[in-house]
Amino acid sequence: MLHYLETAIVESRRTEQPRYGSTSLGYTLRAGGPTGFLVRLAGEARWRRLMVRQFSNAGTCFLRIRGVEYIVRDYDLPEPTE
Q: Rounded distance, CA 51 to CA 5, Å?
């Protein structure tokens, strides 16, 4: 079952992309690969790493919260502050 993120993302920022989570060809592992984006959800002080599953030129961004993966739509991401 697919779960879409319903909680608003109030802030995002860019960081250096971690080097783990992708193959030498650029594809992501089954668990997903990390992106260079951190997001903060409404009502939380914690920053969460936005993950991606990439196959060919199609990628799906998601957040893993308490073991459940929530798909994040591109238009839900605010512009990075830093």
A: 13
Inter-residue long-range contacts of 23-31, CB under 8 Å, 24+ positions, other chains counted: 26/54, 27/54, 27/55, 28/52, 28/53, 28/54, 28/55
Helix/strand/coil for 1: coil
Could you report the per-residue pLDDT of 37-48, keeping only the tens digit for each? 999 999 999 999
Of 19, 56, 14, nearest in space to 34 by CA: 19
pLDDT (tens digit per residue) in 50-70: 998 877 788 899 999 999 999
Q: Please, are residues 47 and 40 in contact by the beta-carbon 8 Å criterion?
A: yes
Contacts of 34 (CB under 8 A, 6+ apart): 17, 18, 20, 21, 49, 50, 51, 52
**CA 12, 41, 67 angle in degrees (round to 5)?**
110
- Give this prediction's pTM: 0.82
